[in-house]
Amino acid sequence: RLCELLDNAGRGWRKLAELAGAEKRFKCSVEELEMCSLKVLEPRGSPTQCLLQLLAKRDCTLRYLLGCLERMGHEQACRVLSSAVQDVIRITVQPQSQVVVEGTQVSLTCCATGPPGLAYQWFCGRQEVPGATSPELVINTATPAGQPEWYICRVNCGATFTFSRWAHVQVEKSNSPSAASGYCPTMAGLQILRQPRPCRLAEGDTLALECRAIGNPPPQYQWFRNQRPVEGAQAPQFQVKLVTTAERGSYSCRVFNLFHEVWSQEVDVEIGEGPRQTSVTPHLLCSQAGVSHSVTKPPSLVLAATDKVALLIGNMHYLHHKQLQAPIVDVHALGALLRQLDFKVVSLLDLRKAEMQMAVDEFLLLLDKGVYAGLLYYAGHGYENFGNSFMVPIDAPSAYTSEHCLCVQRVLREMQQRRTGLNIFLLDMCRKRNLNDDVIPQVGVLEVTANIVFGYATCADAEAYELSQGELSNGIFVTFLKRWLLEDEKITVLLDKVAEDMGTLEITRGRQALELRSNLSERRALTDPIRPPGQDESSARNLQWAKAHVLPESRHLHFDCGVTVQLGFAAEFSNIMIIYTRVVAAPKDITKCEARLTDIPEELDVDLKCTNKESPEELGSPLAPVWSLGCPSCCLYSRICGLQKLRQELAFTVCLQYRYQGMDDFVEERQQVNVGRPLIAKLNLQ
């Protein structure tokens, strides 16, 4: 119907394209407009339909489209579009139940799509919450802890309405039991408030264990029995009805989110009068690497890891060499997959030599004889001389030598000294000879440990290539590696499969082929499970890792004019942070206002063209569609890079500009904000 109205009218599809193009991501090129106009030559072709398809591919919303039609003054088209969606109100973001510490603020969010003019109203139980008419509800939990309060949001447009799911907010006293991990929970961003308790039951009773935590992002749960995951047990409460002696054992709960992980205390559950079933001891699980080759491992015993740690470095923006495109995509893709395998991941982009060395030093602090696997991935420029591989930092001079780079074999020697169970190097770089460097570095004698795996993206004296796919580029190596990384295979078998796949790519055949070097003598895999670590052996390691993953907490800034601004944060990498500002409340006499970031420290890599943008895509990061999923709409976004360069706490200014009804001039208010040392800045790599 819209096509009939807009194809042949004076105020038709060309005017719609012009108005829609006011927002940069919806602007059509001359070629695209010509493509639309040529549709009239097809039997059933429609320029309007072609234009709408282009807008749809760019995630244009019905509300934005309707606004364009209103500005055109096309009342008939507005009625057609409004009537088509009038009865469709869909809740897209449901409020989530939360457990919070007494005295803190908690935010519930409900977002919906539907016809223009959606109205929100929050309820606590059956009572309306006064003034709570926005998608976000901020609750002050200064009231005494007690029974959970239930909240629900109604979304309506005229007489059409729908309700969100119920969400309950449980307020715990601040002296509730904290995490058993032994380190500061506020540093980790994840805190256990309620620990499971040991119990003794008779057969036929109901087993009920509970573990409650708070965190941002919200925590997820996985229950373990005798250090094995319990299938389907992924809620705070674990319940088994009509228990038998088969349920005896030691239970614990792994609590985790995107960046953090803690373990509950391990508790014994005894059923009946028989002896309690004991699990395979951690000592036995960890001792397999030391067993003589003449001893046959029992088939029921699975190698288990006390910890798995990965450092991922991608260098792209070189000062004196060719710029690369793939590392940002490769490091992100590899980091996401390794987190699924329970690796502790630190991912960094664009490091100078001193920063690379400090990052490696911090990585080594995470490794000790209790760590099962240490994985180092590097994507960037590199070379190989006399059997030694070198990673090139972004500040390397045009005629660099080993003095300006990091030697991989030196890193390996230091990893061996940490007694890590499995050392993996994945080097996504060229291995051509460096004619400027004729020095043979003395790295020392490597130990015979039978636990080393090298996966080179290419052979000796060959180059590694990037594969362009539209705006995204992947390295050839990671393009095939990510297909196999989650497979439960010995790491050398997995890399063999990657090599076979790479050999099928015509464009690099004879130019790039994966090379595998290994002296691994046991079946060790990236998928080997992590057993619950003891408090003493893991607390220092967890704290060191957690430091690099602490985002500032979202906060609300209150200005004198009555405007409230939400300041939120998202992590793209361990050294790249997104800051967004959003006006969440404003007096009725203020018609327009926005909050912008200014006075960002000069030492950081901040492109002013990539600050205070209305859409994530305008920041210029190919990963915007990933991290923006967790951000609210109607924000201004800024991308802060190079956090490892911070010499002091990150401080900046939020500048609020607003205009009162009936006035032309804007008024300005400013607030200074200090968010401490976010993410990798806490490790003081300077």
TrEMBL record:
InterPro entries: Caspase-like_dom_sf, Caspase-related_regulators, DEATH-like_dom_sf, Ig-like_dom, Ig-like_dom_sf, Ig-like_fold, Ig_sub, Ig_sub2. Gene3D superfamilies: 2.60.40.3360, 3.40.50.1460, Death Domain, Fas, Immunoglobulins. Residues 89-164, 185-270 form the Ig-like domain. Residues 306-434 form the Caspase family p20 domain. GO terms for biological process: proteolysis. GO terms for molecular function: cysteine-type endopeptidase activity. This is MALT1 protein. It comes from Promerops cafer (Cape sugarbird).
